[in-house]
């Protein structure tokens, strides 16, 4: 099976400006599952009464849950299976609430052919508002996933 069949882009074909997106509507069940998996049971995420008195006015999703969509894009779409997440910077700009649809978008900023690394701009939006921004570096090994 080749890279294209896996849904990935061969390293040689990756160019600045390439972009892919993924959207997911955040549910109460998603937040509870993420709290259980991560161990982050901060009441601003899981307690309606507490969250209502917070600066957000209601429960918010974990920021890293939305940022996790970047990993899905890298690992499955661009560059795809076999790549390795090297680094990620994040700025959390706005909260994400239950029933918000988060769209994660990654865009190739530069390609280092010698080191086989790609620098991406990473952005999550809800509607037209940016909720997370950052940059990620991804390494693409020479070996292919088969």
Automatic annotation (TrEMBL):
The UniProt entry's GO biological process terms, in alphabetical order, are: fatty acid biosynthetic process
**Where does the source fall among the domains of life?**
Bacteria
GO-annotated molecular function: (3R)-hydroxyacyl-[acyl-carrier-protein] dehydratase activity
List the InterPro entries hit by this protein, alphabetically: HotDog_dom_sf (IPR029069), MaoC-like_dom (IPR002539), UPF0336/Enoyl-CoA_hydratase (IPR050965)
Pfam families, A to Z: MaoC_dehydratas (PF01575)
Q: Which residues form the MaoC-like domain?
A: 20-122
- Keyword annotations from UniProtKB, A to Z: Lyase
- From which residue to which does the signal peptide run? none
This one is known as MaoC-like domain-containing protein
């Amino acid at each position: 099976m080749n890279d294209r069949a896996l849904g990935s882009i061969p390293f040689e074909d990756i160019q600045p400006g390439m972009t892919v997106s993924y959207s997911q509507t955040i549910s109460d069940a998603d937040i509870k599952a993420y709290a259980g998996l991560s161990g982050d049971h901060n009441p601003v995420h899981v307690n309606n009464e507490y969250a209502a008195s917070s600066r957000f006015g209601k429960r918010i999703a974990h920021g890293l849950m939305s940022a996790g969509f970047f990993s899905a894009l890298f690992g499955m779409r661009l560059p795809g299976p076999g790549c390795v997440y090297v680094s990620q910077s994040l700025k959390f700009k706005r909260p994400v609430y239950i029933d918000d649809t988060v769209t994660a978008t990654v865009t190739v900023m530069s390609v280092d052919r010698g080191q086989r690394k790609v620098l991406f701009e990473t952005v999550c939006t809800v509607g037209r508002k940016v909720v997370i921004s950052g940059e990620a570096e991804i390494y693409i090994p020479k070996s292919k996933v088969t």
